[in-house]
Amino acid sequence: MSDRRIPKEKVAILDCGGQYTKVIDRKVRELGVYTEIFPMGVSSESLSDFSALILSGGPSSVWANEAPKYDDRIFEIGKPVLGICYGMQLISNHFGGEVIPAYKTEYGQTEIDIDVECPLFSGLSPREKVLMSHGDAVKKCPDGFSVAASTGDVTAGVWSAEHKIVGVQFHPEVELTENGLLMLENFLRKICCLKDVYALEDRIETSVNMIRDRVGDDGKVVVLVSGGVDSAVTAALLCRALRPDQVYGIHIDHGLMRKNESDLICENLSSLGLVNMQRINAEDEFFNKSITIDGKVYPPLSEVCDPEKKRAIIGSMFFKVTDDAARKLNIDFETAYLAQGTLRPDLIESGNPDVSGYANKIKTHHNDVGVIRTLRDRGRVIETNWDWHKDEVRKVARMLGLDEEIASRQPFPGPGLGVRLICCEGPESLPDEKKLAEIACFTRDKSDGNYFIHVGPIRSVGVQGDCRSYKLLSTLYPASKAPISPREVDWEKLMRLALDIPNKFDFVNRVAYCLDGYPTERESAAISCDGMHICHESADLLREIDDIVTHNIMNPKIAQCFAVLFPMSAGGGKKYSCAIRAVCTSDFMTARSAVPGKDFPTEALANTVTEIKNAVGEKISMIFYDVTGKPPATVEWE
Ligand code: XMP
């Protein structure tokens, strides 16, 4: 880390706790400008070396007691400022505008009118598609600013040429804002007039030197290899930096891997030059043993339903199994190092609480549970990819000569199928009859009577307005009982409906469309849920379905594709239903559901349904396709 080349021109990102702060970071770096991230409360003096400031979005309201504190002199040090979402509300509030709570809630892609004279929008057309994700809104433009963008009567952009301060209510950093990258480039090059290019050169050498400095000639490193590109790059860099006898690779099969995955990983890893490579089959330990986390005894995974507890247990168990294996090799983390493929976004989000002091936690990542944080604080964790984003890691993988199979591999979350087995003891409680009638009526009207909706009986995780949500699943069914082939469905219309429903009804965050096994509206009233837990049987069933889904649907246009299993039955003794999830994204911070017939052939969907029915039809009641974007849902269901 010591030998980084830091360019003169650099931009400070002030983090107000937004989920997209790391995407701002990635996009600005992609545009060749060096960035550093600070907590919102950083003093204006610390920013004197920076060329410009970007204020991120965040979950707070500017007028709330818990709103992030800031040094108001940041607006007096003569730096150009871009405020995004919460950042724009803060600018507006600071300069005498009016920010109103829940004035106009918008989650999802929206069209806005822009003033093309504002240099931020240079080269764009008067109407642009952008991603909105906010509850509060700016009602009155701040003094000395002009309105640079709007949706109806809501201000979507403010601009002061005099101060070189610009604010946007939407998120230019995410892909759903179609010309967002150009807007950021306009800010950096036209408003801030930056010239430097931060070329991310010598990455491999820098990383290799860092490893040698820290580990020395006698040190040992245990690297956890999951099979994904991130840990494979870490393992390859360690092999390049150290003698083979200093590096120990461990692959843990927690019983929640995909079909045949562990075999494939172990074959691939030996070609990296990992001589000391161990595979540990630890399903029994993960599923059936309790574990102590922060002094509290947690029950075995097979008895737990809460998504965050499941994640905490799996993450902590990873370390326990690694630690036990290391001890058998006479390695102990008092002196040895644990290496992980953690990326810059993970560290931004969680590695340094000072950086993201206000962020609303969406999910606990397996490489950042308490025990790993403690080890990191003690300086025992090596994270070779600490300064890289996902796309950069893929490039490094290719530079290191890793198999394309690994370099371009779709992400697989550390907790594996554990977060795709939706566990519960029984049905979740539903909103009152009036609300259910309203959502039914809304769906029928919006779909011209083509679909009806059912709410519950399970919940899944989502992200709305920078906050975590854990809300009911809603499922859509064709109103006609006659089978409808995927080719006949108007998918884009369905996806618009999937955006409207959670925007209008705050008790749902995810919408899935039933492809097979659908009940009539009358029968849907009897949809039941007997609960589900993680066990060998449920994991095996999901593994089988996931394999069918991936083989049929995955292609280079799709960033991630998998199956989810949940306890929902439309009558008749079958306990489970499953959903197909396929998303298009490159940053994974926002995503859209892949459109059948556009992103992959509708036949592939039809084949998937047939194959699932042939293989495990006796256990599966209904088969769904998840039509929700992120936001309001997340890619994974938990
Ligand atoms: P979500 O579900 O938050 O996921 O939209 C975004 C991306 O992150 C992956 N993911 C994880 N990856 N450990 C990981 O290494 C985790 O605990 C984890 N949880 C989610 C997810 O698969 C998607 O690619």
CATH class of the largest domain: Alpha Beta
Residue share in β-strands: 15-25%
- Strand line-up in the sheet with most strands: 2-1-3-4-11-10-9-6-7
Q: Return the structural class.
A: alpha/beta
Low-confidence stretches: 351-358
Distance between the termini: 34 Å
Average pLDDT number: 90
Q: What coarse outline follows from CA principal-axis ratios? A: globular
The Rg value, from CA coordinates, equals 25 Å
CATH architecture classification name of the largest domain: 3-Layer(aba) Sandwich
Task: Report the bound ligands by name, code or SMILES.
Answer: xanthosine-5'-monophosphate
Number of strands: 25
Q: Any overview of this molecule?
A:
The protein is of the alpha/beta class and 638 residues long. It has three domains: 3-191, 3-Layer(aba) Sandwich (Rossmann fold), CATH 3.40.50.880; 203-411, Rossmann fold, CATH 3.40.50; 433-626, no CATH class. It contains 17 helices and 25 strands. The strands form five sheets. Strands 2-1-3-4-11-10-9-6-7 form a nine-stranded mixed beta sheet, sandwiched between helices. Strands 19, 20, 21, 22, 23, 24 and 25 form a seven-stranded mixed beta sheet that branches. It has a five-stranded parallel beta sheet with strand order 14-13-12-17-18, with helices on both faces. Helix 4 crosses helix 5. The longest helix is centred in the middle third of the chain and has 22 residues, at 307-328. The radius of gyration is 25 Å and the shape is globular. The structure holds xanthosine-5'-monophosphate (XMP). Xanthosine-5'-monophosphate binds next to loops.
